[in-house]
């Protein structure tokens, strides 16, 4: 459809239309011309020509070519450096917002859970996740774990199970100590590279270490007192005989290993002394 100006414009204010042989006015030049702003009109002349109208009803739509389709990633984190980690973090944050109003228990009363270490998590997602980033994930996991155990939804249980270790060390209960037919209790102690097996039996307070007296094995008074600290702290020096087999490390490590083994053997005879041994009284 051809259009023209209501008044003639100089030729320098016109430019050629790319779709036909006519000319159209330059908009920036019209505003600056001395004759003032001009309006387009279709009733006079052929100074300006517009492009022909397009009849959309006559166009034939072709079926889209699958080769030209753009693949859209399912994950919004696909183009990030750590997409799997970001997806996990977004999922945990979404669960926290969803269930943050549920009643919680004190941190000390929450179920004890052994979460995956950062090395185990890196193997799980196959990405070089930084320790600081994984610490933020652990903070969210601990907060979700404080939700009352009877109110935890199944969706949250399934999500937390992904971050738990395959073997939970908190589920391994120590075997209770027993007293054999000779009245002996048994305890194992380890300190640094030293290991000690300590047998405790009621007696007069005799001590043998590797078949030798304690004075022969430990020349320092500090090591002798350290080895028998469990009996001394509970006032049982003259009630039990000690027979220990110790190996590895130096004299200080061996003495402290005997201390731990003797304390475990003593609790088999008298379980009520556990609190006294912890306080060191």
Folded structure, characterized:
There is one protein chain. The protein has helices at 27-32, 83-99, 118-125, 131-145, 154-161, 214-217, 221-227, 229-233, 251-269, 274-279; strands at residues 2-5, 14-16, 23-25, 40-41, 48-49, 184-191, 194-202, 207-209, 212-213, 240-247. It is elongated and about 120 Å long. The chain contains 10 helices and 10 strands. It has 281 residues and is α+β, with helices and mostly antiparallel strands.
Offer a few descriptive terms:
281 residues, alpha+beta, five-stranded mixed β-sheet, three-stranded antiparallel β-sheet, 10 helices, 10 strands, elongated, disordered N terminus
What is this structure's SSE topology?
Blueprint: E1 2-5, E2 14-16, E3 23-25, H1 27-32, E4 40-41, E5 48-49, H2 83-99, H3 118-125, H4 131-145, H5 154-161, E6 184-191, E7 194-202, E8 207-209, E9 212-213, H6 214-217, H7 221-227, H8 229-233, E10 240-247, H9 251-269, H10 274-279
Parallel strand pairs: 8-10
Antiparallel strand pairs: 1-4, 1-5, 2-3, 6-7, 7-10, 8-9
Helix pairs in contact: 2-4, 7-9
Please give the alpha-carbon distance between the first and last residues. 106 Å
Q: What would the average pLDDT be, to the nearest integer?
A: 82
Order of helices and strands: EEEHEEHHHHEEEEHHHEHH
Number of strands: 10
- Specify the biggest β-sheet: 5 strands, mixed
Q: Give the CA-based shape.
A: elongated
- Give the strand order, joined by hyphens, for the main sheet: 6-7-10-8-9
Radius of gyration: 43 Å
Number of helices: 10
Give the helix/strand class.
Answer: alpha+beta
Tell me the β content: 15-25%
Low-confidence runs (pLDDT<50, min 5 residues)?
1-6, 28-45
Helix content: 25-40%
């Amino acid at each position: 459809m051809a259009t023209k100006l209501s008044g003639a414009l100089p030729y320098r204010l016109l430019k050629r239309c790319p779709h036909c042989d006519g000319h159209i006015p330059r908009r920036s030049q019209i505003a600056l011309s001395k004759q003032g702003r001009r309006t387009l009109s279709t009733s006079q002349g052929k100074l300006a020509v517009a492009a022909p109208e397009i009849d959309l009803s006559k166009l034939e739509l072709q079926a889209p070519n699958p080769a030209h389709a753009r693949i859209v990633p399912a994950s919004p984190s696909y183009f990030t450096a750590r997409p799997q980690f970001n997806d996990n973090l977004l999922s945990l944050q979404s669960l926290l917002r969803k269930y943050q109003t549920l009643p919680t228990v004190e941190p000390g009363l929450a179920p004890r859970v052994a979460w995956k270490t950062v090395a185990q998590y890196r193997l799980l997602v196959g990405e070089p996740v930084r320790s600081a980033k994984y610490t933020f994930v652990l903070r969210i996991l601990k907060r979700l774990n404080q939700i009352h155990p009877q109110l935890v939804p199944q969706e949250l249980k399934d999500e937390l199970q992904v971050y738990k270790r395959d073997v939970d060390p908190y589920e391994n209960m120590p075997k209770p100590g027993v007293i054999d037919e000779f009245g002996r209790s048994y305890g194992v102690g380890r300190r640094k590279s030293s290991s000690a097996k300590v047998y405790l039996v009621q007696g007069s307070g005799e001590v043998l270490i590797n078949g030798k007296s304690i004075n022969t094995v430990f020349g320092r008074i500090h090591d002798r007192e350290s080895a028998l600290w469990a009996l001394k702290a509970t006032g049982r020096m003259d009630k039990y005989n000690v027979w220990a087999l110790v190996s590895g490390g130096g004299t200080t490590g061996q003495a402290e290993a005997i201390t731990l083994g003797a304390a475990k053997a003593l609790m088999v005879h008298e379980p009520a002394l556990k609190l006294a041994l912890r306080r060191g009284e």
